[in-house]
Amino acid sequence: VHLLHATNVGHTALWVFFTLFTIALVGVLFLTVRAERRNRYFYGISSLVLTIAMVSYLAMSTGLGVYFVPIHNHGVQGSLHHFYRQLYWARYIDWLFTTPLLLLSLASLAGLSPASTLAVILSDVFMIVTGLFSAITPARWAAGERARWGWFGVSSFAFLVIWGILFTNGLKAANYRPRNTKGLFTLLAAGTFLVWLAYPIVFGLSEGANKITVDAEIIAYGVLDVIAKIGFTYVLLFLHTHDETGPWTL
Ligand code: RET
Predict the structure, then answer these.
(1) Rounded distance, CA 80 to CA 73, Å?
(2) Span from the CA of 233 to the centroid of ligand 1 (angstroms)
(3) For a substitution probing ligand 1, which of 127, 136, 166, 197 has the most ligand atoms within 8 Å of its CB?
(4) Burial 46-65 (b: 16+ CB within 10 A, else e)
(5) Which residues contact 250 (CB under 8 A, 6 or more apart)?
(6) What pTM does this model have?
(7) What is the pLDDT of residues 102-152, one digit of tens each?
């Protein structure tokens, strides 16, 4: 039996990312207390995102949320060796909650209608769930391999639906917002789209084609998570003006 798993490098990286999310969360809580009560909408969403990421990294650091997926035996004909690759499924629980919250921030910034906002969020949930299906499908043989890439394709389609809605209806809605708001939405949506594009690439190289080690995967997803969550949050909280909060108060 061959187990492809994280070493000390990956384990250390998980603790580093846990620490970064903890510091970022403390920073946001500090900013939240200083913001006016009626302007705390984006602060509340952002605190939730960072709390979920922090807990998820703590779980992975302490060895939770792990599974070994059977993968093909690297063309070793007739080999009796069985290969398994470590999968941190805890990530998908994190993404299931944090990606809808990030999209909710973007949709609220644009002033997107409730119906389109719901469509974006449901597509996102669908993308994460089918992405998890891809990751956990055993691929000892070619049929499993095909099923994995099939789910990958289904998930990628949902990815395109999300961004299709945000770049059409989202931009249209943002036209009715103050100039600052429209600019911030355009900046954040474009930046987020580019960062999110990297996720399926990392997935393809790790869970997909097994081209990079589990340690490299941990670091790659970690860096992306820092940009997509901490980077996003601080740009949003520092650049939004207070009439963008919408009709809600916290
Ligand atoms: C998967 C694999 C299948 C194809 C696609 C994927 C997309 C994942 C994305 C994740 C974004 C995560 C973020 C996390 C935290 O901030 C599921 C990897 C399209 C876009 C932003």
Answers:
(1) 9
(2) 18
(3) 127
(4) bbbbbbbbbebbbbbbeeeb
(5) 37, 40, 41, 43, 44
(6) 0.94
(7) 999 999 999 999 999 999 999 999 999 999 999 999 998 889 999 999 999
Q: In Å, how far from its chain's centre is CA 28?
A: 19
150 lines ligand 1 (CB under 6 A): no
| Ligand 1 pocket, residue 152 CB under 6 Å | yes
Please tell me the distance from the alpha carbon of residue 111 to that of residue 122, in angstroms, as a whole number.
Answer: 18
ipTM metric: 0.97
pLDDT confidence band for 215 (50 / 70 / 90): very high
Residue at 98: amino acid letter: T
Report residue 249 as tokens: 């108060």
How far, in Å, CA of 146 to CA of 53, rounded? 31
- Taking the centre of ligand 1 as the mean of its atom positions, its distance from the CA of residue 149, in whole angstroms, is 15
